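Annotated sample (chain length 87).
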Amino acid sequence: MGTDSLARAVELLAAGAWQQAHEIVQQEKSALAAWLHGIVHTLEGDLDNARYWYRRADRPFPGRNAVQEEIAAAQKMVQRGAGPSTA
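Output written by the structure step:
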């Protein structure tokens, strides 16, 4: 796995396919994967779990209403090939 699989996970999140994205991100251990995992659980509606993964990614949890902005930010990040600490 790695950056390519996480880029695929972001594509899936953008398409609303959070279940498939979850299968990818739960196998990764990076901060980027943790952030995406938080987005997965936000889309799922499991906000307590989302907050946990945002903490693991060392990012503030922006809430359910910001999920599309978070996906857009994640898309930009994977296009740059950077981790979430550079956001």
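Annotation: The two ends are 22 Å apart (CA to CA).
Annotation: The chain has one domain: 3-86.
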